[in-house]
Amino acid sequence: MYNPNLASAEPPKITVISAKSQEIAKLRVAAYARVSSDSDDQQNSYIAQVDYYTKNIAAHEGWELADIYADEGITGLVASKRDDFNRMIQDCRDGKIDRILVKSISRFARNTKEYIQYVRELLRLGVSIHFEKENIDTGKMTSEQIATIYGAFSQMESQNHSNNMRISVRIRMEKGDYVSPTTPYGYKLEERTLVIIPEQAEVVRRIFTAYLSGQGKEDIANELNRLGIPRTKDRKMWYSTTIGYILTNISYTGDMVWQKSFATNDIPFRQVRNKGEKPKYFVENCHEPIISKDEFQRVQALLETRRLQIAGTVSSALLKKKLHCGNCGTLFRRKIVNEKVYWACRRHDSHKDLCPISQVPEEQIITAILRMYHKLKRHREQILSPLLSQLTELREKELRSNRKINDIDKEIAQLTEQNLVLVRLKSKGYVDSALYLSQTGDIDFKLRELRRLRRRIMETTGEDGQIKATETMLDYLESSPEHLGELTEELFEALVENITISSETEMNLTLYNGLTLKETMERTVR
Description:
By secondary structure, this protein is α/β, with parallel strands linked by helices. It contains 17 helices and 18 strands. It has a five-stranded mixed beta sheet, with helices on both faces. A four-stranded mixed beta sheet has the order 12-16-17-18. β13 and β14 form a beta hairpin. α5 packs antiparallel against α6 and α14 packs antiparallel against α15. The longest helix has 39 residues. It is extended, with a radius of gyration of 33 Å.
């Protein structure tokens, strides 16, 4: 029977069970560096920066080294050109990194748009970035405004540097101290002066003489190829465009024109042809001539005469192998009826029962193509820019799933880890300097080779062709005329791959990036 008095007389026995001491997870810290590829620049070498960041991270008790990412001798203006930067971002997405150390914002990116994009993405992933020079920690920011200002400042720094270079080049041109970065075929550069290469100079004279004697540019190129005359050590074949370039290059008279092209002001910088936007500099008698000025002028006159002779057939020549029948697939052929030019399906033209699509006036086809050009010119940002973004995203996804790329990334990570182990052993005195330099040198070489292999694989992926074609199209449309009144070779080379005539009033234009646009061909009322 329960006795309440007895229970209260004996107090309960209490045993304290101690709480387990919780291990605090270490912060996984990575470092990103853009290192010099110059063998004499020891301060910014890969080994020096690995050593610096290894010691820096080891000095913090709650940190552990995740990896060190470094891109060698590659510009920071565009992130897509930095292999290790992209590998680091992917590791952040995979949850392998908690914090990133960078010397300065300019090392991380100089393109404000990409800078903000990656800072925001990493913050969403819970990854903070510490920029040492600016003493900015994105994990402690209450607003992105500060980071945006510094990112804009970095881009401005890059633009200022580029502007300073332009001013320096312009001053040297005005003083006559400028040296062109390109050397024409037939010359070599010695002590800032163009010096004739005798055997190449003979080829140049042969080209001018042949053209004045009546040979065409293509015939001259074919003859040089047949005789096995080399161009340069990197280029072996001759083309009609090569001959045309030589025939119009005033450098062979001993004169030069400077600033025939220039770099754009906006990032990413592009080199474009100078069509009068910038001053040009004509320099007389600056080196020994290969041909006389009189011979050069006679060639220019002959080139203009021949150009005028074929001016009326330029459009026809451009359309010749581009027009296909949408019904039977055969090529269209050019025909003249009552002094008017038409294009007709070959099968329909031989017998109307073989194909229902009848002939179409050339004027209607040209008008439709020019209308398409002007639409693309006006709306390129709405049509081509989103397509370029989608293609780039698809390419990145493919690369992430590419086994070869993944294997290379693993090997790069393993070699980086080996390098870190060597740094630790060297810091503790377990490895002598000679062995350390030998081993790290071998690893450094292997890393460069792997990065080169990675870039080659990336360049051969499926979407690359479409991406490059779309970029070429955008470049052309940005610099091409607002109003184009006739078909040009540049338009066809940059945009139009194929034209399909689907009816007497409708055509489909297939562009080089695979995009197909539909255009109507309105009959001209006279």
